[in-house]
User: Which sequence fits this backbone?
């Protein structure tokens, strides 16, 4: 803290209180009064620096700043800082408690926009501390480990040395950003924080956030924020500031209509490709350009662009970049519509937006500090940002922007923009096809600074890259799945139902029966931990293979009546084990497969075997029925598709099937699921050859599987992308899931309830004395039957 004295020892002497900052290349005085100017004096311009007693101060940074070459300056400044840090250590008297245990201490720098502050990092069993060398902005920054919610390793200055810590789930800005002097210190601090914090979510990956977003658990805004964090974007690093898309393309209408597609920007293209005429010129130049080729001479996110938007709330940053001056008034952020038009038509303007456009703080649109930002050519002073006609004010503009970002149109197309910025269209041939090619130096790994021996060249190149802008770290290498949009009730359904009410005495309440069923299923899964054992029976002499009907290696098919508590049918088809069975539509016929290579047809009504099909050359391991076709999998490494011959139906006495297709596999197939996807021209049947247990979610899009590798894995079947992976302590033999929660039967006999998004077990229910081999759940999801290695079947009910 210091006073800037004007006209010292004169009658009109004036004092202005503020902060005096001795930096590595300049002296800065920042007055407390925003009306007063910031004073910046480069050290290389100083003739002498004297203390009050007129003795010349010995400031080593002055000597460093007077060196001619930037590389020499940087080397000397680094040496001075390291020397000072080596002579000091963290003050242990700053610990919050005398009982704290020290785990690690190292040197680091706290990163803020355009400034890094050197000091000491200390990690205990309870807190993370940073003590600045100069005691600014306060003597010690302290963060309680239990409050930490997110931690990210960062790439700072193109080097893997950063670490950012958040104590909130969804906030844009972090609690502290640290840059270390070597990656070993960074990784050790990361490990200590991740080990000792509670309720942390540091393990979340881009794929796990994608699953939450697809299922609608997080908003478009939250998802983009998480992707930016995972891609090294930070509010503390202006060269890697979070990037958000232009969404709205209409800035002239008096009313913003979010139901019209033309209201929105084409999210499948980068900003530079939105104007075809400009794009044609850029492509022609690109084709004629020698290596390294690039389409765009400027980036979509850079420190200059970020401060272009934020000049009204962070003028000091623009003054720092612009050598103490604001940009020309006509080049300032004057109007939303003008900025959008320039991004469409400008020869070198391809910038996207920043998160502030979709938040609740509109101060960046208002000149509340009354800054003198200059006068435009028409004579108009630069004041508040001019808003589109459909916005009644800054807050209304942000609210409508938020509504646009979360609109159905954007939810359906946001994955296309993610492909460009964070995904597979960011690099390589896909980037060229998408007209998304920037200078190679902007990409991660585009330059190896360690390979550059000349320190001056290294500093110059690093400065150039940081000022030009950096492409986010690539998060996805395959096409990003589309968000799952809930289907709305059609108007025709409502109108036709109204007509039927007039024609017949149907209760109006029946209209919402489907909704009530969905609500009851949701309620059941929300209370799945209240599952209680109702009854249990032993009906086989060997462990179960399959429900429902129950099968076991004793080669019998048994039908058990829960009401009479007796076995109604017991049929032996073979002297070898039965592997699986299905009940055909109509509930009159059971098809069962056997290890004796055959498939058996059994009539429930007549209580006898109807037919036998010689299925495979080895044991038939699994069968399923879908859309009038029988699918069979075998240890002979084949899957066969059987078609019921026209004229012969499953209700006939005999069943005549002809082989429709045979598909080979490299190993024996022990699990089979048929997913039928309908297109306009063709019915396509996708067969999954599996050596583990797996089930599709009801959206027919996500496949959850588990096997001997003790992992639950979620796959998006449209893109083949692995979305989530959760490790289990032991193999899970069977399961049911609703997309978020898993009910599984374990090797040890317990029923486990999993939070798939959180990746943890939330409840354990004691069940069988051996492995749970099979599981069945009713349509309402409130009754469960399990079959176990202990030869018992157990009936479970929800106890609300």
Assistant:
């Amino acid at each position: 803290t210091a006073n800037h004295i004007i006209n010292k020892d004169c009658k009109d002497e004036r004092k202005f209180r503020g902060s005096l900052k001795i930096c590595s290349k300049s002296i800065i005085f920042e007055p407390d009064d925003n009306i007063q100017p910031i004073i910046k004096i480069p050290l290389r311009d100083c003739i002498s620096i004297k203390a009050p007693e007129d003795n010349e101060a010995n400031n080593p940074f002055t000597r460093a700043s007077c060196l001619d070459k930037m590389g020499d300056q940087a080397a000397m400044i680094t040496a001075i800082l390291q020397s000072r840090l080596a002579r000091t250590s963290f003050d242990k008297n700053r610990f919050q408690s005398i009982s704290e245990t020290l785990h690690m201490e190292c040197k680091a720098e706290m990163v803020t926009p355009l400034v890094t502050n050197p000091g000491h990092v200390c990690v205990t069993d309870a807190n993370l501390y940073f003590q600045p060398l100069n005691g600014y902005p306060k003597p010690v920054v302290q963060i309680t480990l239990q409050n930490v919610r997110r931690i990210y390793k960062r790439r700072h200055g193109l080097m893997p040395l950063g670490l950012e810590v958040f104590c909130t789930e969804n906030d844009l800005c972090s609690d502290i950003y640290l840059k270390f002097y070597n990656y070993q210190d960074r990784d050790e601090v990361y490990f200590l924080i991740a080990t000792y914090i509670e309720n942390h979510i540091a393990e979340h990956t881009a794929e796990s956030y994608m699953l939450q977003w697809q299922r609608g658990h997080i908003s478009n805004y939250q998802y983009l924020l998480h992707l930016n964090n995972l891609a090294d974007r930070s509010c503390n690093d202006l060269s890697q500031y979070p990037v958000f898309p232009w969404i709205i393309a209409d800035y002239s209408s008096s009313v913003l209509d979010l139901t019209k597609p033309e209201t929105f920007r084409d999210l499948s293209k980068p900003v530079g490709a939105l104007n075809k005429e400009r794009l044609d010129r850029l492509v022609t130049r690109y084709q004629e350009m020698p290596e390294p080729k690039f389409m765009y001479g400027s980036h979509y996110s850079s420190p200059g662009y970020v401060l272009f938007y934020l000049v009204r709330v962070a003028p000091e940053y623009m003054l720092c970049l612009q050598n103490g001056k604001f940009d020309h008034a006509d080049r300032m952020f004057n109007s939303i519509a003008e900025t959008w038009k320039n991004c469409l038509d400008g020869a070198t303007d391809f910038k996207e937006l920043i998160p502030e456009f979709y938040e609740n703080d509109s101060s960046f649109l208002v000149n509340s500090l009354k800054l003198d930002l200059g006068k435009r050519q028409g004579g108009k002073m630069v004041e508040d940002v001019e808003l589109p006609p459909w916005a009644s004010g800054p807050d209304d503009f942000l609210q409508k922007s938020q509504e646009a970002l979360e609109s159905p149109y954007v939810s359906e197309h946001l994955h296309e923009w993610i492909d460009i910025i964070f995904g597979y269209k960011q690099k390589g041939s896909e980037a060229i096809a998408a007209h998304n090619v920037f200078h190679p130096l902007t990409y991660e790994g585009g330059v190896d600074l360690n390979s550059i021996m000349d320190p001056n060249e290294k500093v110059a190149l690093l400065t150039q890259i940081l000022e030009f802008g950096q492409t986010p770290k690539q998060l996805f290498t395959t096409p990003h799945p589309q968000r799952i949009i809930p289907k709305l009730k059609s108007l025709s359904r409502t109108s036709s139902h109204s007509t039927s009410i007039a024609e017949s005495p149907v209760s109006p309440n029946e209209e919402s029966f489907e909704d009530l069923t969905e609500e009851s299923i949701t309620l059941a899964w929300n209370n799945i931990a209240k599952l209680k054992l109702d009854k249990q029976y032993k009906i086989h002499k060997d462990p179960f293979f399959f429900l429902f009907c129950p099968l076991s290696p004793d080669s019998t098919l048994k039908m058990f009546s829960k009401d009479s508590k007796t076995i109604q049918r017991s049929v032996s088809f073979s002297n070898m084990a039965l592997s699986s069975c299905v009940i055909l539509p109509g509930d009159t016929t059971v098809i069962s497969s056997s290890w004796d290579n055959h498939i058996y047809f059994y009539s429930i009504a007549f209580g006898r075997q109807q037919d036998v099909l010689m299925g495979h050359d080895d044991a038939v391991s699994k069968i399923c029925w879908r859309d009038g076709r029988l699918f069979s999998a075998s240890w002979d490494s084949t899957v066969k598709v059987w078609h019921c011959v026209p004229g012969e139906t499953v209700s006939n006495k005999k069943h005549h099937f002809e082989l429709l297709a045979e598909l080979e596999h490299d190993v024996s197939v022990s699990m089979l699921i048929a997913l039928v996807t309908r297109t306009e021209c063709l019915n396509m049947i996708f067969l999954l050859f599996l050596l583990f247990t797996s089930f599709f979610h009801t959206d027919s899009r996500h496949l959850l599987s588990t096997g001997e590798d003790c992992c639950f894995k979620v796959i998006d079947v449209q893109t083949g992308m692995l979305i989530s992976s959760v490790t289990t302590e032991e193999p899970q033999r069977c399961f049911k899931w609703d997309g978020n929660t898993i009910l599984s039967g374990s090797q040890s006999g317990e029923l486990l309830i999993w939070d798939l998004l959180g990746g943890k077990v939330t409840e354990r229910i004691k069940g069988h004395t051996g492995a749970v081999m099979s599981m069945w759940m009713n349509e309402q999801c409130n009754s469960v039957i399990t079959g176990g290695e202990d030869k018992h079947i157990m009936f479970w009910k929800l106890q609300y």
